[in-house]
Amino acid sequence: MINKLQQVRAFIGNTPLVQLDYDRLEIFAKLEYHNLMNSIKVRPAYHILKAAIKKGEITPSTTVVESSSGNFGIALAALCRQLQIKFVPVIDPNINNAYEDILRALSYRVEKVTERDRTGGYLLNRLQKVRELLQGIPDSYWPNQYENPLNYESHYFGVGSEIAHHFEVLDYAFIGVSTGGTIAGISHRLKEKFPKIKIVAVDLVGSVIFGGPPKKRHIPGIGASMVPKQIERALIDDVVMVKEIDAIDGCHRLFEEHGVFAGGSSGSCYHAIHHYFSEMDLVERPKVVFLCPDGGTAYVNTVYNADWVAQLRQEEHVTS
Ligand code: PMP
């Protein structure tokens, strides 16, 4: 099975790191949508499946079950196809239509949780559904991206190392958070090489990860309705909370000003960078890196759709 998995190894990692034209800062974007299945999440998916196969926890008769907002699910679906084993993702209504279509095409079966949990999100109910499925399906395996230390490890050795190797000096890294695996892995790797670097976590208003009150959110991939375990391992210096409408604005600016067509968490980071440095007196141009964990194609019916954005603006106006 390992051999089958390794056939796609060449399509994972070594993603472009590009400098954006910007006056006050040296900004670099790590374009993770150049990975297999167009997102960063294939890195942990590959690492976790490989370890489980090695340990004998995954065999040809295994069914993989996971809660995913999309990207991790799509990565797992593709790798499970490669391995010719069954995959059952547990999704919720926040998922992009395009992602749902891909998951339905590639998975053995899709489970959709439609009731919001007590925080206003879906995550707690999705996890409950995963536990039920694991009990019902014999020989099932749960990668458990929220708690699996291999999620953290894949980013430490993967994207974290790639960024570290690229720079002699690096001052800031802005990283969107959901399971916390990315920021935990990258922060450890970057602080080893650049002890003075500031790691800035970026989250959406309405996510509870950094103690804010829960609120309905619409952009998948970033934020969570529980505090993920892996966030404890992350070395975080600052947190920027971004409103969804500003995250969308960040996406549009990334595309219009730099030709980077990216997803909601990328726009959140780009907006956070503007906000963070806007009031700061800068003597030198700091070197700032941020991630673009996925591309914009899956967001054409939401973030890049004028009617959808107008409706969100209306909702924000009513509730604020
Ligand atoms: N951005 C996107 C688009 C994602 O899919 C994810 C993973 N859910 C993240 C950011 C955050 O990564 P992590 O779960 O490792 O915190």
Automatic annotation (TrEMBL):
Q: What Gene3D superfamilies does the annotation carry?
A: 3.40.50.1100
Domain of life from the UniProt record: Bacteria
Q: Tell me the GO molecular function terms.
A: transferase activity
Tell whether rRNA processing is among the UniProt keywords.
no
Tell me which InterPro entries the record gives. Cys_Synth/Cystath_Beta-Synth, SbnA, TrpB-like_PALP, TrpB-like_PALP_sf
Co-factor requirement: pyridoxal 5'-phosphate
Query: Which keywords does this chain's UniProt record carry?
Result: Pyridoxal phosphate, Transferase
A Pfam family reported for this protein in Swiss-Prot or TrEMBL: PALP
Domain Tryptophan synthase beta chain-like PALP residue range list: 10-293
GO biological process per UniProt: alpha-amino acid metabolic process
PANTHER family named among the record's database cross-references: CYSTATHIONINE BETA-SYNTHASE
Subunit-level organization: Homodimer.
Protein name, UniProt field: Cysteine synthase A
